[in-house]
Amino acid sequence: MTAPLGDSDNRLDAGSAVESRTTRHEKRKGGRLLVGLTALLSLSACASWRNPPPKDPEALADYKEANDPYEPVNRKMYGIQMWAYHHALRPVGKAWAWAVPKPIRNSIDNLNQTWYMPTVFFSDVGAGKPRRAGDDFMRYVINMTLGAAGFIDVATSLGYPHHDSDPGLTLATWGVPSGPYLFLPGLGPNTLRDAGGYAIAQGLSPINYVPRGYGLLTFNWAYNIAGVLGGFSSHIDEIDQVEQDSLDPYAFIRSAWQQNRQSQVDAIRNDHRATVPDWYN
Q1: What pTM, to 2 d.p., does this model score?
Q2: Distance of alpha carbon 131 from alpha carbon 139, whole angstroms
């Protein structure tokens, strides 16, 4: 890890924010799964791009901690993503933030978050956390009804705040090894386990089963595109800061993402709350 952005907590917060909010929008977009999986399959054809384990004990410890044996090809994939960011995503995101008022952008973010809740619910069920799953269910019902189909976050004010969960985190709580770190264009930081979890998440997301007719398919496209634009427009400054202040943005993002994912796994494992809330008793 090089060139910190202030102290270590701020560095982690900045990296975690980029991952936890921006990629939350990115990872729901099924159209980019093919791109990411194509890059994943290319690893088998790029064995020469694998970094062999060093012999020096100290260097070997750093190698294992990074969990990035495919770093040469991952850096190339990172370069492709950042090229797309600078030449397309960033300008479009800036235009979106300029043209769309912030209250509307917040409502779109709430919509994306609410409609992703079934995936969060099934992930928490799979992790054996009924209280978290119950909160997910209540949050979904409240925001889909009182929150005008998810445009308004009413659930948080009623005691059901949002928390992150996905099938990749569930697999981690089962003890499934992460596999090597991967950077997949369109999906960003990943591991073999999380890439598999992303594929499962697509099957759990109701929006992917929108039928034809009544303009629903058009709405589905609009929903996905607006989510991507909203995600990038909200966090352009954070991404730019990482690029500007870190000597090695790739290594910073890798470290921050891995730490954030581990903290999310730990939060799930350490959630031992009673199955029902106190008011129910």
Answers
A1: 0.79
A2: 12
Neighbours of 166 (CB within 10 A): 25
Residue range 270-277: mean pLDDT, rounded: 82
Identify the sign of the CA torsion 136, 140, 141, 143.
positive
Residue 265 pLDDT: 97
| Angle of CA points 41, 45, 47, to nearest 5° | 115
Q: What is the mean pLDDT of residues 77-90?
A: 93
* Ramachandran angles phi, psi of 106, nearest 5°: -65, -40
Nearest to 118 by CA among 137, 144, 134: 137
Residue 217 and residue 22: Cα distance in Å, rounded? 24
Instruction: Give Dmax (Cα) for the chain.
Output: 64
Between residues 16 and 266, the one the model is more confident about: 266
Report helix, strand or coil for 190: strand
Q: How far apart are CA 180 and CA 186, in angstroms?
A: 18
pLDDT score of 81 more than 70: yes
Q: Which of 6, 66, 1 is nearest to 241 (CA)?
A: 6
